[in-house]
Predict the 3D structure of the following.
Amino acid sequence: QVQLVESGGGLVQAGGSLRLSCAVSGRTFSSYAMGWFRQAPGKEREFVAAISWSGANRHYQNSVKGRFTISRDNAKNTVDLQMNSLKPEDTAVYFCAAGRTRLEPAGKSTTDYAYWGQGTQVTVSS
């Protein structure tokens, strides 16, 4: 059974930083792309960042480029999201997701991902 467990969320002031981490178990982690999505109250879940199975390719939503960095450690089966210069509009529940198909490129749609974590709350105060 594939499991994804996020950690690292919390409350931070605008301009601050947080690092989210996602631990994956139950599959060959290094063969699948990984992604981070977020969902604010009353809004649809949206793409934040994704990283290919090898870590060679990374993609970001335009609003987080230059502020967020996605990384993965295939030896530890973890994927992280470093978030700097946080803004109130970054407030949301953040979800880690694991790719659907082995060795496929990292996607930006929720349908590209087969497994999801339970989410971790990030709140940025102004």
User: Anything to note?
Assistant: DSSP finds no helices and eleven strands in the chain.
